[in-house]
Amino acid sequence: MGWVDNLNGPTGLMIGVGKGVIRSVLVDGNNRSEVIPVDYAINGLIVIPYEFYKSRKRPAEIPVYNITNADHRKAKMGDVITMCKRLGREYPLNVGLWYPDAVITTNKIYHQFNVLMFHWLPAYFLDFLLLIFGQKRFMVRVQNKISTGLDVLQFFTLNPWYFKSDNFASLWDNLSTEDRGIFNMDMHSDYSEEEYLIGCIKGGREYILKEKLEDLPKARFHHKIMYVIDRVCKIIFVGLFVYYLLKWTGVLALFSSNEQ
């Protein structure tokens, strides 16, 4: 099953999250996913004009073909994200910026806070270090592209979408057995979403990031190390935040006076 071999769409999002660059995404987990294998869509684009050409009588109204997933295959985006996180642990990418653990939320204020803390501040800090060491700066430029992409994406991930695809599904019934073997576009087939996502991850590693599949054991080991570092840093950060909050509110001084 085909996938798009560039950084546009879901593939780019998976790689960005897998590399630890994207730390927060606005997604409503209850919305249904409309992602289908790209070869299904391309085969549909080939068959539609072919079927239209075969028609002896021109239809009174222009037919509309929505190339979308079959209704019974539209999984909740929350379930897809959970599967992606699990597969990301099984097939991690090579060395990334941080441990891949993006926050999925519908709260725009919380999202903007995460973007500021975990997108922009690290980007400016890393560019500052690159400037000191006389290296070319690029992190802020990368974050600008990521922010633009996420701003466009959130319109589609926060709103529900429903497309009737009866016309598209009927095309499969009109194909001959020979044509079905060439132009697979049966959205009612039992292809595995998990198998498709594994193909996307492996393909992204090998063909986009140029990472060898033989490096997976090393990537899994590095992934575990990054997990420990991520948790330790979060515990220290939260601990310091609570400490200074208690100190600023005077609660810490109150406890100290009680002990004396």
TrEMBL record:
GO cellular component: peroxisome
Pfam families: NAD_binding_4, Sterile
GO terms, molecular function: alcohol-forming long-chain fatty acyl-CoA reductase activity; alcohol-forming very long-chain fatty acyl-CoA reductase activity
Bilayer-spanning residue ranges: 113-133, 228-246
Domain Thioester reductase (TE) per the UniProt entry, residue ranges: 2-43
Keywords: Lipid biosynthesis, Lipid metabolism, Membrane, NADP, Oxidoreductase, Transmembrane, Transmembrane helix
Origin: domain of life: Eukaryota
Catalysed conversion reaction: a long-chain fatty acyl-CoA + 2 NADPH + 2 H(+) = a long-chain primary fatty alcohol + 2 NADP(+) + CoA
A single GO BP: long-chain fatty-acyl-CoA metabolic process
Domain Fatty acyl-CoA reductase C-terminal: residue ranges: 118-211
InterPro entries recorded: FAR, FAR_C, FAR_NAD-bd
The keyword Ion transport is annotated on this UniProt entry: no
Enzyme class, spelled out: oxidoreductase
EC numbers: 1.2.1.84
Job of this protein: Catalyzes the reduction of fatty acyl-CoA to fatty alcohols.
UniProt record similarity statement: Belongs to the fatty acyl-CoA reductase family.
UniProt name for this protein: Fatty acyl-CoA reductase
